[in-house]
Amino acid sequence: xxxxxxxxxxxxxxxxxxxxxxxxQFLNGLNLHQNAELDFQNDGYVVIKEGKSRSKYFxxxxxxxxxxxxxxxxxxxxxxxxxxxTKELDKLLKAAAVYQLPDLSxxxxxxxxxxxxxxxxxxxxxxxxxxxxxxxxxFSFNFKVENIKILPGNYEVVISRxxxxxxxxxxxxxxxxxxxxPDSTFG
Length: 187
What we know:
Elements: E1 4-8, H1 23-30, E2 37-39, E3 45-50, E4 53-58, E5 80-84, H2 86-99, E6 103-109, E7 112-118, E8 128-134, E9 139-144, E10 155-160, E11 164-169, E12 174-179, E13 185-186
């Protein structure tokens, strides 16, 4: 959908370039092993192994992978900034699953910034919120919950009124750029 871009620096040297269609699936597959070893001897897939366990993960055709731009992505403005704790994020995503809520909104009202999982199209839907900061502004920046596919951790979050956000992990070198929904409002 071209609405999420992840950038990460890893310490490991990989012997070849290969396409991963679903990064979350690949990472979850790695997590099936405590101390995985990757075997790249085959051209079409990698074998993830540990002891008696094996997984075969097939590479994606490069033609179906959307590659990122060559230049660094910068936000056109930095209108809302806050820290997002991994426990808060976990609670929000769990509440979205429990209440079957499709939307995550960053809302500025009554002097606070809060994250709210809700169904924007249903005024009587359940919701769950966490206060993450203070503000003098009024806004509602909207994401689809399904687009918040980020690794666990604490994040510095910056949102631009131009419908783009940056989630930068504070512990390791990974940054996500996630597009906002077009119905987001500022001011």
